[in-house]
Amino acid sequence: MSTSSKLASDVPPSDEISDGVPEKRHLRVGFVALSDAAPLVVAKRLELGHEHGLTLELSREASWAAIRDKLITGELDAAHSLYGLVYGVQLGIGGPREDMAVLMVLNRNGQAVTVTPSLADAISETGDLRRALASLGRKPVFAQTFPTGTHAMFMNYWFAAQGIDPLTDITSIVIPPAHMVAAMEEGGLDGFCCGEPWHAVAQARGLGRTVTVSSDIWPNHPEKVLACRRDFVARYPNTAQALVRTLLSACRWLDMPGHRAEAAGWLAEPAWVGAPRDLIAARLLGDFGRLSGRHALLAVSFFDEGVVNYPHPSDGMWFVSQYRRWGMVGEAAVAGAASTAAAVSQTALFEAAARAEGVPVVARSAAQTLCDGRVWDATVAADLAGYVDGFAIRAKSANLR
């Protein structure tokens, strides 16, 4: 049953809203089997929600499409979600359109691109991705996890930065993260982009080699978020704030010394991720083996004294810019990106929750230089159309409106 279809008797009395008591105390929160679901798993294992009047029921979902569908129908109250999934739904290009909310950022960095061993060898031998792909003698096939998601946009960006048009030179398919390794084993897949620990698993099994991590594409990029429908926030504002406080506590716990190794043991359990503990722990701690990159190879970050978690509207605007770049939206979406992002990013709610938890509010995002040398920050976001027009490789979509 969707949130909007519930009975009016479910609405809490006004005095309950005013005194900060959660209007809804039992929450069903979705996640996908990835290492960066760690804040939710930690929150559940330590029952951090109890301090804020919440009981969390975690629901492992098979794919990002399942997360999308269950958020839209109200089967899930909130979810660990791709940033780009939220914006795809908001704009009506990633499924049915629905007003969505980003309550907080759960992590930055922590994704990668893995290719077959033979392609990895070709990349090493030629020193050039374009030449290495040409050596296949056919159109390469790469997998990502959701059409409007982080992985699709990062993979497109990475290809284009090296002179490869992802729309014409690459066949892109969608595979759920936990199925990437099996797809690699079956053959027909040259590479994939998703979250950990599936890159570590593919490499350990000799099925693939990680050739870049996402921080080499965009250092300290926003990744997973705590997402919900916007009417959930309107209906249950105290609950939403309590949930943010709970997850902030979990993120802070994860960045404390020794805690990631402990969390890796929990994530390894079949109910959560179900991959070998050592492989989960290695990438959580930033061990990428002999991999080198143009930028710093940064480990996944969950808290960093609150720097990670602020839901900057400019983060969302970057996804809109890439949707326009690849012909997925028209000029109107770009023109309205600032207002869209302001509505999606629940900054006031986040700030209230952060202050209640004693977390510094870092409301301005730092400028970052991406792998093609272009800078992204809030100032650049203010001229989104100009930013998009500056890309040499982009869709020929001038007729979109």
TrEMBL record:
<feature type="region of interest" description="Disordered">
    <location>
        <begin position="1"/>
        <end position="21"/>
    </location>
</feature>
<keyword id="KW-0732">Signal</keyword>
<dbReference type="Pfam" id="PF13379">
    <property type="entry name" value="NMT1_2"/>
</dbReference>
<protein>
    <submittedName>
        <fullName>Nitrate ABC transporter substrate-binding protein</fullName>
    </submittedName>
</protein>
<keyword id="KW-0813">Transport</keyword>
<dbReference type="InterPro" id="IPR044527">
    <property type="entry name" value="NrtA/CpmA_ABC-bd_dom"/>
</dbReference>
<keyword id="KW-0997">Cell inner membrane</keyword>
<keyword id="KW-0472">Membrane</keyword>
<keyword id="KW-1003">Cell membrane</keyword>
